[in-house]
Structures are given as structure tokens and as C-alpha cells.
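User: Can you fold this complex?
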Amino acid sequence: MDRFLSSATNRIDAKGRVSVPAHFRSVVQRRGFSELYALRALDVPAMDVGGPDLLDRYEERIALEDPFLQTADDMSFFIHGDGSFLKLDQDGRITVSDFLREHTGITTEVTFVGRGLFFQMWEPERLNAHAAEVRQRLSAMRQQASQARAAGTE
Amino acid sequence: MDRFLSSATNRIDAKGRVSVPAHFRSVVQRRGFSELYALRALDVPAMDVGGPDLLDRYEERIALEDPFLQTADDMSFFIHGDGSFLKLDQDGRITVSDFLREHTGITTEVTFVGRGLFFQMWEPERLNAHAAEVRQRLSAMRQQASQARAAGTE
DNA sequence: TACTGTAATATGGGATACCATGGGAAAGCA
DNA sequence: TGCTTTCCCATGGTATCCCATATTACAGTA
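Assistant: Here's the predicted assembly.
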């Protein structure tokens, strides 16, 4: 399978290194990425990490904004401004930079979350909070949908 | 038969492995898969499990959404982040990870419940409680319906 | 229906391979 | 020279392979 899936939490060692889950590394290889791009996620305190295609995706997103408006420029700055890329060492580890820590709140542990075509890096506690929100939204959405169906058949 | 039917309870061994019921395995293997896709169910403490094709179906669903709106992001977060592949070993067993235990409360035994296109993994006690709830809801609903019918004919 | 043998399945355990993690040493940089 | 980064190796823990044994399901026979 060549998609990033499931999540795992790894510890950051004294030198600031953390192992990228083996499963993710094999996906990276299979997709033929030689370098990983880490971008700040737009709405959440997480990093989006993936191959060059991740950049394309963000470009598309920016393209939707009116180029004369502040928003587009802000987004572009936000993404390209400090966009760092992560080097995998021989043991499949990356070094967690201050840039990463600042945006995510990561200190001693990192949770890697598969997102299909890319993956995310989270501070474990913040991830839990976010996950709870997401599940609640989806659950509410599903109830609404089934109520709407019931109403339609009455 | 290519549907998941009936239920069975199996024990988890000292290494955290548990056999997937043979008839469930044959459903998956007939399609040529050697791994399972498991997703944390939204409203109940159970895992929804199926072949990797189950994931495909979800991804197709997401593709219908505007990729830059919150809904698409939530859905992806859920099916990729709350999902995981379970590798079947040669004897048809899977290892029950903390990822599964956390959400389901599973400790020493697992009940596998056929649900047609997928099956579920439950902690036996919780399944009993849930089954009782479901029965009660259904019988309440039936009583309501028959009362409404009686009222209509009076 | 009861009994019996057989095959399929579930379970247990030793050995092995893989992976996260930690630390020493060499290599770059100020 | 100090400091950080990168390489390399050691270790413990976990997952996987492979085989043995127990248990269950099934089919045939009386």
C-alpha cells in the first residue's frame, strides 16, 4: 500500500532526533521521494509532510484566492517563507528544528499521523484535542444526514 | 459467500495475537489481500474492519467533497488518522495494538461481528451492553409504529 | 441418534528479523 | 577550540516466521 496511514508516537532523543515510522519511510521510498517537505498546516498546529506533490497542492489552494487580496500573499508567505525540508539520516530519523517546535508545540514526543498522500506531525496532546473535535463534527454531520433522510420519507 | 456474516469470540495470546475467524479471512483472501484495513468506529467503541478496498470506498467518498473545505479535511483525518492496516500473519492472526485497545477497551478477548461488507472487533462485555441498547431502541421504535397505526385506524 | 475418525481451525511457544532508541566517534562550522 | 550535525554501532523490545499441540467442526457409519 502506498498511502500514509495510521498514527504512531515516537520520542525525541537528547540530540533532537526522532524516528519516522518505518511504515511511512517505506511509503516515501515507494513513491520515489528523495526529500521531504515540511509545511505549516494552515488551520492547525501541525506540520504537513510529504514529497514535492505537497507543494503543488498548496499552490492550488493559493491559486483559489484572489491574487490582489492580502490573503493569497499571506498564505504564500506563510508556506514558502520558512518552508523547510527534512533530511532523513541513515537510520530513518529526522531532526526536529525550532521551526517545527514553534508551530506545533512539540517538545519531547511526536505523533505521526497518516493522511493519505502526506502525513502530519503533531504534539500528542494537541492531536488528541483536535481528534476529539473532528470526531464530534463528523458524528453530528452523520446524525443530521440521517434525520434529513427520515424527514424526507415521512 | 463474499460477505462477512455471524460472530465469534477469540482469545488474545501472550504476544498480543488473535486469530481472525477463518470465514472472515477467506472473504478477504479471496480478493487477494493479505492485510486488513481497520477504522475506529465513529460512535461506538469498536473497530470497523475490511479489506483495503474499504479504504478505497471511503476515499472515493471524500473525493466528492471540495478538497479545501473543512469537511474533506475532517474525513481524511478520520479515515487515515484513525485507520490502520492490520497485517495477517501466516496463521491468519493479527496483533492487537494499543491503537485498537485504546478505542475498544479490548484486553484479553475479541469478539468479531460480521456486518456484511465489513466486520467489527469488540470487547465482549461492551458488545453485550451495546446489543442490549440496540434491541431496546428497535423494540421502542416498533411499539411507536404500531401505536401510530392503531391511532390512525380508530 | 450416537459414535468415531479426520480435517480445519485456534492457540501456544521458540527462534529470528525488524525497528525505535541511545550513545560514541568522526566530520562540518563558527 | 567548542558546538552541532552526521555516521556508525549496540541494545532492548516487539512483530513475524515456523512448527507443535489443543480444540472445534464436520462427515461418515453404525
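Residues 10-11, 13-15, 17-19, 21-22, 91-93 of chain B lie near DNA strand C (CB under 10 Å from a C1'). The interface with chain A takes residues 35, 42-43, 52, 55, 59, 68, 70-71, 73-78, 80-85, 99 of chain B (CB under 8 Å).
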